[in-house]
Structure formats: C-alpha cells, structure tokens
Amino acid sequence: MSNGAWSTPAQKSLRASELGPIAAFDADSTPGFDGDKSDGEALLTKRGEHFADLQELLYANGRSGDDRSVLLVLQGMDTAGKGGIVRHVGGLVDPQGLAITGFGKPTPEELSHDFLWRIRNALPAGGRIGIFDRSHYEDVLPVRVHNLVPQSEWEARYTVINDFERDLVDQGTTVVKCALVVSKDEQKARLAERLDRPDKYWKFNPGDIDERAYWDAYLEAYQAVFDRTDTDYAPWHIIPANRKWFSRLAICELLITALENLDLSWPPADFDVEEQKKRLAASE
Amino acid sequence: MSNGAWSTPAQKSLRASELGPIAAFDADSTPGFDGDKSDGEALLTKRGEHFADLQELLYANGRSGDDRSVLLVLQGMDTAGKGGIVRHVGGLVDPQGLAITGFGKPTPEELSHDFLWRIRNALPAGGRIGIFDRSHYEDVLPVRVHNLVPQSEWEARYTVINDFERDLVDQGTTVVKCALVVSKDEQKARLAERLDRPDKYWKFNPGDIDERAYWDAYLEAYQAVFDRTDTDYAPWHIIPANRKWFSRLAICELLITALENLDLSWPPADFDVEEQKKRLAASE
C-alpha cells in the first residue's frame, strides 16, 4: 500500500542494529517508508520546509550563545551519492548555517598528526549543521581494506572513535551517521554513465574501478564499523542508495529528528523590548 | 512597460560609477530592470537554474586543478538584507561549492594582525564561490565613521585595499562587490518588525538604533568607498534593497555574468575513456 508516509520512523527502520548483515542488504529497499518515487519527492518538498525552519531555529540559538550543533557523517562507496546528499539535502537550508567538509586522501600535514586532528579542526560551531563528506571512518575503511597502517593500529581506532564521539556528544553535538549503500550493479551503471557523459568525466577516477575488486573486503570493513561503533549516543544508519529520492528523503528525516530532539525555541530577547520600541520610534 | 527583463545589463546599470551620489540614491528603484515583483521572482527561478549550472561547471574545473574562483563581497547597513542574499542567492547552488564567511567585530587575535589577515584566511579556493557577509570594507566604514583608528590609518587603507584586490584578481579571483542600500525609513520598518516578532528578536541589536544617528556619516563613508575603490578590475555595484526580490535578482545576475566571463567548459578526461569503458565492462 503506497501512501507516501513512514510506517516506522527512519531513525528506527534504518538503524544499523535493526537491519541484518550488510552483505545481505537490499540497496533497492525503502525500509519504513510506504510510497514510491513521486510520493517520496512530494514528501521531501514538504519536509524540507520543516527542516529549513528547524535549521533557522538552531542557527538563531547558536547566535544567542547556545553551543549545540548537529553533525551528519556521510560514508559510502564511490557513486553512492554522498555529493548528491550535500547538494539536495544540504541545499534545503540556509547555506550560512552549514559547515561542509570533504575529507580526501590525507595530506602530508594531516598524516603528521593523529587521524582525528583534521576531524577536530572541522567540527561545526554552535548553531551549525556540520556535514562530513567522508570522515574519520575512512581510517577504518580503505585504511583497513588496504592495510595502509598495521592492523594493530587500525584495530585500536574503533575504541578511539567511540571515545571521541562520546566526548563530542557530551559537548552538545548530535551525531547522525549514515552509510549510503549502493549495489555493485548500480555502481557499475553509475560509473558507466560518468564515462558516457563528458559533463561527468570530472567525477570519474580510474581508481574507482580498481576498488570494485575489494567490494567484499569493504562490506566486511563496514560490518565491523556497524558492529563496533553503532552506539546509542552516536548511532549508525544504513541508507539504501540505489534510489536517490529515498536516500535524500531518509537523511532529511533523520536530520529533522535530530533537530526536533534538541527541543529548541526562539531565543528570548536579551534587551527590554518595550524600551527598544520607544527608542526606535523616537529615532529619526 | 513591464516585461520582466533587463533593458541594461545589471553590471552596467548598477555600477557605482554609473549611478549618482549615494546620498541621492533611490533604494526603491530597479535600475536596468523592467518588471515588477512577480516578473522578478519568475526570472530569478529561471536564472537560478542557469546560475546553478555555471556553479557546477566552476566546481568541476576547480576539482580538475583550475584555481579560478569568484568572490562576492556584501556590504550594507543593518537590515539591508545581506543574510537574505546568502540564503536566497547562495541557496540556489550546491552548498558544497560555497565558502561563506561572516565578519563581525574583530576578535583580539584578528586585531593583533593587519586588517587583511582575517580576509586572506577566508579567500575561496579554486572552483569555489566565496561570499563575504561584511568584509575588509568594515575597516573603512564603521572604523571611519567612529574613528576606531586614527584618520591617517584608515585613510591609507583605500590604497592597500586596491592593491590587495589587484593581486586577488591577478591570481584568478573574480571580485564582485555589492553594497546593499535601504532607505532610512525602510530600515526603521525592518527594525520595528524585529521588535514585533519573537522569532526575530535574535536578529535585533540595540546598537542598531544607535547607528542610525550616524546615517549621514555612513553615506559619506560609502561614497568614499565608491570614489576610491570602484575599479575596473574589482567593480562596486550599488544594489537598491528596499525590494528584496530585486536585490536577489540583481546579485544573481551579477554572479552569472562573472561566471560566464570565465568562459568555462567541462574539464576534459585525464584518462583514456575507451580504455576505462573496457575495464569497467570487464569488472564483475
């Protein structure tokens, strides 16, 4: 029955611990949502306005000294649509209130520090929604798959990450972690499109084909991430991403829930309203 | 005759040197544009899509090593709508491609450096559109009006600014400077609205009323800015801002022109497309 609504809230239906092993995950599914593409797009338009209102409320509170923030952590294999989430979900709100950071291969300077150094430098200020396009999880995903550091080193990181996120949450940042999952066939189709369209060449990297050979190792590495870092204070959500309309709708919904849970209201005036009205009326 | 089109291109009709003295400026006017609010809004929707396409092209080139960028410098008195420009014009494009910085009262650290230090730190990387909400011009506007530094010091800054912007442009940044101008009455109405609506209290600052007493001194300071820093390489535009639909349309148009002048095309593949197609087809 298609009615364009969530039968189960996204933060429950997409929670990593609610879903089965990632190796068996259906990237075409729409867990918790009853509706098709046109239902989903219509709902996103509507919910996008609510999202924008909540973001303005967060920003207003930040400007008034509230240091709470929201951090969306996006992970996913190549072509899973992380950039599309930044554009189409981030694009729903005032860009002034966003702090977007993409994490690529670490630079020599970044490598000379511990792996969380560049992450700490990019954390959102109070009142902002931070978006990480890739994140500290790169240090237990490609780094693990290719053993870019010794196993003893990456093994230790899961605990370091949990401790780091615990601190973050304690300091007032709501952490929303989303892993976008495409199927191997869908990835192939999306890479083929990048090779067919000259306006998409810039998104193609020959290394993306090489990485396909490590697909199963990546699934294992993702499973370890979910098993070891899906905590109640910083939960992981698995976002089926073969249908872009769904992944956008789902992540918008997760951000709305995060913002609603902050239970924000408009900051009270820190001046005497009536007095200021009189002063203004008296000014030329 | 209202037909919803520009009779004179915005970069000409709004150029500071084309317009008369700022003290006589009509903040309700729509120089160069023949049309009313609904015409303007319809045109902004259409031009916004073109703007987004051009921004993606700039971003793609940036990712491919082109270090050119665009910098929008926004100045204007309180309530002139700078934040609305960031939200409604910046919001037309992929937020990933924006680098937005607001410059408030300088912090002690900023004051311990020369006045351009914080500006240099916020310049857009290649492929980005930077937006400065206030800028280095604060150092010759409130600073001049209130003599926050000795006159000999602020007097010297016009030349320093011109040299700085010359360097910026030489390094590949297109600089688009816009001064948003509201009338004194319109400002009063907008301040009154902030005092009438609890969801707007956070935008109100009692100091904004104090600044109204310096209105004429500000106009003088703006005039000096136009007289001394409206250069062909980094031109000033005066944006009448009593009608928000017009200021948004005008600035979108100025950014489109800046991007079109870069004469961008999609970056060519830096790999052999046919070879990669074969590799992809052969991958599982």
From TrEMBL, chains A, B:
Keywords: Kinase, Transferase. It comes from the Bacteria. SUPFAM superfamilies: P-loop containing nucleoside triphosphate hydrolases. This is Polyphosphate kinase 2 family protein. Residues 36-261 form the Polyphosphate kinase-2-related domain. NCBIfam families: PPK2_rel_1 (TIGR03709). GO terms for molecular function: polyphosphate kinase activity. GO terms for biological process: polyphosphate metabolic process. InterPro entries: P-loop_NTPase, Polyphosphate_phosphotransfera, PPK2-rel_1, PPK2-related.
